[in-house]
Each structure stands twice: as structure tokens, then as C-alpha cells.
Prior knowledge:
Shape: globular
EC number: 2.7.7.13
Enzyme class: transferase
Largest sheet: 6 strands, antiparallel
CATH superfamily of the largest domain: Spore Coat Polysaccharide Biosynthesis Protein SpsA, Chain A
Number of helices: 11
Strand content: 25-35%
Number of strands: 30
GO molecular function, one term: GTP binding
Catalytic activity: alpha-D-mannose 1-phosphate + GTP + H(+) = GDP-alpha-D-mannose + diphosphate
CATH topology of the largest domain: Spore Coat Polysaccharide Biosynthesis Protein SpsA, Chain A
Domain Nucleotidyl transferase: 18-299
Amino acid sequence: MNRTGIQMTDKNASTVIPVILSGGSGTRLWPMSRASFPKQLWPLLSAQSLLQETALRARDVSVSAPVIVCNEEHRFLIAEQLREAGVDSPKILLEPVGRNSAPAIAAAALLVAQTDPQAVLWLMAADAAITKPEALSSAMQNAVAGAEQGLVVTFGMKPTRPETGYGYIEVGQAISGLEGVSTVKAFREKPDTEQAEFFLRSGDYLWNSGMFVFRADTLIREMEEHAPEVMTAVRAAFEARKGDLFFERLGIEEFKAAPDISIDYAIAERSSNVAVVPADLGWSDVGSWDALWDISQKDPAGNVAVGDVLIEDSKNSYVRSEKYLTAVAGVDDLVVVTTDDAVLVTHRDRAQDVKKIVDRLKKAKRPEAASHNRCYRPWGFYESLIQNDRFQVKRIVVQPGEKLSLQKHFHRAEHWIVVGGVALVTRDEDKVLVRENESIYLPQGCVHRMENPGKIPLTLIEVQTGAYLGEDDIVRLEDTYNRS
């Protein structure tokens, strides 16, 4: 028995393999969630990120290693977060481009079907929350039973409010012989307020969670019947895949040919083989700041405070600070979020409009639309402290045993000052050990590399000078992480 109370130890039970999709960018949770570091990688509800919470929830259900489908940019971040959470030997599939959920799921099914075509896959997004994990046991058992009969089973969540941001499932008749499993009468698009209120009153409609349970061979068969163009492209991409460190990289051109389509449109709304398990799991897609407020622990005035925050004479507000002291007074129903480079203030009822702000930032080509000031790399991270026309100051942190690429720059020189740990620096033909409170100069055009030979993080201050300081002025000559 595990934390959720689920026990899958029957020798005749199907193997349950978790499949976690981690491809979204979560723009409605800007300024925290951005393309470079999206919401699933943030600890929004606990000390663990949403991805870690999802992976640990999956581990409670299954002893099988999870399959993670993610993009190139986040691969090292995801691998590191899984390692920190104690999730062993995950199989990580890399999407060359985003093509929505159906192609990603098809690739995962092909991977699993290589060794066990009848394995049951539990598909879930990396960025959803479940606040009632104790209710997951019976729901999963019912779903697995349906999947073993060849059904594509989705979870329908009991609605708690007239939510207009979710799709809905209209529940049909109970399926004989399968406890807690019903047919799907119809899938409904995101409703307006009036429709959402009707759905809530009716009791026949459930939130569409996007979680599915199905056998690998069932998914492949359904995809071949209802979305053959997806299956053709993904099968070609899967056959062209290549190993890259501890990742499986799908064929680039082949995957690009796959249609951009969700599993709902590709299969769920087309197939007569789809069933639903109604459940009350305290589920949320954490799709907006208002949704996050709704599932977070509140003070007696209904406020949620995260980070260095002061709240005075205010109620029903969400206030979060990632760096600076943030204080609010005499306000109601607000969302206030501060990061090191942006501040968001919005009424909770307008939380969905945050996406409009991101769209405007993108049109203006503002870096804040997609990137944080702190940029993560396989070896650690860097963040800009000061930037001007001809100089820039950065803080760089390199984890123990890691090293940057062997590289050179055409337009800038660099001066490195070690403020913590020890750096082993390659400078052309020389190797120099630079200790705390020591520095080294790297002239423009020299071939150089930095690595951390120690057992504590290496921290240094980098001063760049030159006519052009863009990150694209890097010529990699050799790289441990196979980056171009």
C-alpha cells in the first residue's frame, strides 16, 4: 500500500505505466510561468514543483518508471527535478517541436508497446494539481478495469463552481460490469457563464481533466482509425529517434509533419470507445492565478501570502513575492505577483486576461514575455546583474562536477572573479585553477572553458566587455551536453 492507498500488486493485474506530458508554457501564470521556465517547474503549492508532485503521485500508483514527454529546452531541468524527487530511471522522450497532446501521447504509446503492448498507460499533465489524493485509489482502479477491457477512459472531475475555463463531459449510462465507469454522451467546449451555471446545476456534467487511462495497443489502434495522419508521422519520427545522453530524441523532420491536435479532438470526440470515471479529486489545472488562489491554503481573511509579503486590512487576495518585499493594504480580490524583473497586479476576476498581457509583450518583442532574468543551463544557471551598451555583469553558478562548453567569442572579452568555490579554467593551451577571491581575464577570441572540480557550487562574477554581448555570440567547440 502507498500514500494514495492504491495497491496494484495482483499478479494478474496489468502493468500501469505513468505518462507525463510536460510541454505547456502556462502564460496565464505570468510573470512566474514563462516559456523558459514554465509553471510545471515551479513550486506553486508546496516545496516541490508541480512536475515533482505529479511524478511522486504516479510513483504511488506504479512501480514502473514513468515516461516523460517534453521539449528540448527543458530536458535537463526536468531530468534534474526528477532526480531531486527520487524518481528513478525515467524514460524521457524529446519533442523537436510542439504538436499538442495527440502526437506526444502516440509517441509514448509506441515506446511502451515495444516491450508490452497491453500495458496500461496513465496519462496526465505535469502542471495539474490533485488536492485529494486519498480519493484517487478507487477512481484509478475503476479506470484501469475499463482500460483492460479496451476502453479509452478519461477522468471527469466533479465541478465545484460554474467554471468557464474548462471543457466539460456530459455523462451517459453506467457501463454494466464496470463499477464507476460510464459512457460519454458528449464533450462540451468551454461554456459561457450561463451555460456553466446550467452544467453545475444539472449534475450530469463534469470537468474534462485531460487525464486518460488506456492500454498502449488500444491507443495505437484508436489513433490509426481516427487520426491516421498523426500516427503515420509519429511512427516515422519514432523509428528515426536517436539516443542522446539519457534522452530519446524523436526524428525532427518526421515529427514536424504531425498535425497539431489534442487527444480530445483526435480520439475522444471521434471514438465510440471512450468512457468516463466520475471523480472528486480536488483537481485543478492551475490555469490562472485565480485557480491557484482557489486551491491554496488561506488565512482567516481569505488571503494567500507566499514569500516576503505583508498584507494589511485586505481580503480574498493572492500576494506572492519571489524576491522583493511586497506589501498591500486596503485591497480586496486582487492578485499581486512580483519577480526580480516584473510585477503583476490584476483583479482575481480578470486573471484570465494575463494572457493578453503576454501577447502584448510578445508583439513588443520584450524578453520578459518568454524568459526570466535567471537562465538555467545543464551545468547550473546565470543571471544578469547589470547591463549597458558595452558591458554586462552576470552571476554564474556551476554545480559540482559540471562544466561549460569549450567556446570562444568574436565580439567580447570576459573577466571572471571567483566568489565561492574553485574554478578550473581552460584558456587556450593553459589550465588554471582559480580560487575564491582570485580572478582571470579571457581576451576576445580566446578558446576557454570553466568547470567546477569541487564538491560545493562554484559561484563567480563575470564582467563582459565588447561591442556585442548577445548570447548568440558563442561558438561551441566541444560540449558535454551535446548542444549545438
